[in-house]
Amino acid sequence: MTTIKTSNLGFPRIGLNREWKKALEAYWKGSTDKDTFLKQIDELFLSAVKTQIDQQIDVVPVSDFTQYDHVLDTAVSFNWIPKRFRHLTDATDTYFAIARGIKDAVSSEMTKWFNTNYHYIVPEYDESIEFRLTRNKQLEDYRRIKQEYGVETKPVIVGPYTFVTLAKGYEPSEAKAIQKRLVPLYVQLLKELEEEGVKWVQIDEPALVTASAEDVRGAKELFENITSELSSLNVLLQTYFDSVDAYEELISYPVQGIGLDFVHDKGRNLEQLKTHGFPTDKVLAAGVIDGRNIWKADLEERLDAVLDILSIAKVEELWIQPSSSLLHVPVAKHPDEHLEKDLLNGLSYAKEKLAELTALKEGLVSGKAAISEQIQQAKTDIQALKQFATGANSEQKKELEQLADKDFKRPIPFEERLALQNKSLGLPLLPTTTIGSFPQSAEVRSARQKWRKNEWSDEQYQNFINAETKRWIDIQEELELDVLVHGEFERTDMVEYFGEKLAGFAFTKYAWVQSYGSRCVRPPVIYGDVEFIEPMTVKDTVYAQSLTSKHVKGMLTGPVTILNWSFPRNDISRKEIAFQIGLALRKEVKALEDAGIQIIQVDEPALREGLPLKTQDWDEYLTWAAEAFRLTTSSVKNETQIHTHMCYSNFEDIVDTINDLDADVITIEHSRSHGGFLDYLREHPYLKGLGLGVYDIHSPRVPSTEEMYNIIVDALAVCPTDRFWVNPDCGLKTRQQEETVAALKNMVEAAKQARAQQTQLV
Ligand code: GLN
Ligand code: ZN
């Protein structure tokens, strides 16, 4: 008989009303003192744990909770303090200084946590670090909960392989040695837990899912060295976000339990389980409830899935748990959330997911009949949501079914289009443009607030937007930019703006998730068929166009970016959703074109971050991602110029896809890439229209004409002149007017000088 337990890997830190964010920001501002702050954080920690205990989770994690980021916690515990912060004496000050920077010392870099939208602080290695355990947060947290609630918990820590993989500041060849140097620290930390009587520790090694067989073997040695020092403490080696290729190696690790993700693994873990079995004396911690999406689980289907796993893995003990930490979903349904009932009932956030696990356990222990009511309820809710979500527009279904190859392809190749576009657009050599947005000033934001609060009528608001648009069209003309934009003053966020105007999207008031530090986002919810309702950008674009004889670019967010920055439904594939969005946007593109707009930009800044973790899965994703983009953009006339924009420069790894988008022009971030990308282009020329950002928009600094001129000239050494564009790195919405105008003035001057020089050459 297998013992069944429920377990959790991590819980959102932010609190139901983002109390965590408020506590942090008040402390940073200096409006609360340190003692008050620490007390608030402690209360939030207690309450997060309490929620999990109340949901009857048997194995509750601690130390997933943090004051900022769990990777930073690990680094600081190991005394990995970057040199520039070592003069600080107070531990809390040092911690936040690394995360946020101080005068004279920039913060550590922040980057995406695997393929999620959570960002962690990148640990910085350097030779001068003295490896030393400065704090045992795991032990402190364990004690705190034991003292408060009398409950045993499972401390969580990032494992040595993952920690070093995520860090920077060393050569790849040094990785192993650094991991080894960390072993004694892990041993000390774990031994202290053992002495305290802790039963289980969870060591997170998500980086193993992309590790080579050799690395999985190497990491096993680390674990051998660690666990051979322990006697009574049980180690759960936890993987998530995908399967581990070297499965046989993984299950032979000298640990007492192994956690596998059975949701985001494309079925590979079950396959491996079937082929290679699972050691009966180890605990199998099976991730069976999706830790990354927000949808209610079909309990019967999940119960059968667990039974399936159990029929193969004849383990003594099985833990059922979310597929990953619940950090990536909102805390719990908020009592004040007003959504349509059928939608609300179909949702399941962190707290609700734990209840699902508890129900599943009951079903496993006492039989399906024991939870028949919950099973029925889940089915009813899911059914009702499906009903609610299905678009009334049967036309669109037909359109999607009838899509043919020609709908994904512009009728003639790029070179031929270029000739036609050059003729009809009449642009100078090295045309100048911007990426779309102009400063979202305090006035713009306050106007939007007034309108949202109904203090301003639609008309008042539209008049304001128009006036701001006109002001910036005038500025752009004055600057002598070649291709103008309307400025995006009507948009807060590039996904939200479109989501609010398309069918199939819902926006919540309270469903926040942490993005980084105290920063939280509310991703749009794609619950149903995405459909075009009416033109979304035509009015503002056409108005801008009416003010100038120069071309105004239409400005859309692409289908892949909209998808990647939302919570997608899970009853159809991501590809299908991307195609629905693509088809809807295709209608917007047509509406813009019909209204006389000849240049249309479809931004895809999030295309690359949607890449699957395993390179073997890249092709499939990149293929449909490019198709969705082309579905959006290929219906236009040959003379209509399609632009796209992405906010990164090194597109080496996806260059085929970039080409595959078949956009006439791509503008990308470039100014900070220090020529590395030009070296690449020298070897692999890019032959479609290309705009390499000539100035960094992340800083208020105004670059000189000469500086930008040099960037252009360097680029022209490797890029064909007749299709090269001059533009900033990205949109300018976070900048001030003064610096924006000054920088663009220099940019236009730099382009003019480069143009003059080129014409002389000819
Ligand atoms: N058009 C958008 C803007 O200028 C693009 C933003 C982005 O690339 N993230 O703001
Ligand atoms: Zn950008």
From TrEMBL:
Coiled coil: 734-761
Alphabetical keyword list: Amino-acid biosynthesis, Coiled coil, Metal-binding, Methionine biosynthesis, Methyltransferase, Repeat, Transferase, Zinc
Gene Ontology terms, MF aspect: 5-methyltetrahydropteroyltriglutamate-homocysteine S-methyltransferase activity; zinc ion binding
Pathway the protein contributes to: Amino-acid biosynthesis; L-methionine biosynthesis via de novo pathway; L-methionine from L-homocysteine (MetE route): step 1/1
Binding site for Zn(2+) 1: H645, C647, D660, E669, C730
Chain residues that bind 5-methyltetrahydropteroyltri-L-glutamate: R18, E19, W20, K21, K112, N117, R519, C520, W565, E609
Any GO BP: methionine biosynthetic process
Cobalamin-independent methionine synthase MetE N-terminal domain residues: 6-310
Binding site for Zn(2+): H645, C647, E669, C730
InterPro entries hit by this protein: Cbl-indep_Met_Synth_N, Cobalamin-indep_Met_synthase, Met_Synth_C/arc, UROD/MetE-like_sf
Domain of life: Bacteria
Residues binding L-homocysteine, per UniProt: I435, G436, S437, E488, D603
Residue span, Cobalamin-independent methionine synthase MetE C-terminal/archaeal domain: 430-752
EC number: 2.1.1.14
Cofactor(s) listed: Zn(2+)
Residues that span the membrane, as ranges: none
Active site: H698
NCBIfam families reported for this sequence: met_syn_B12ind, PRK05222.1
Functional description taken from the UniProt entry: Catalyzes the transfer of a methyl group from 5-methyltetrahydrofolate to homocysteine resulting in methionine formation.
Assigned protein family: Belongs to the vitamin-B12 independent methionine synthase family.
Official protein name in the record: 5-methyltetrahydropteroyltriglutamate--homocysteine methyltransferase
Gene encoding the protein: metE
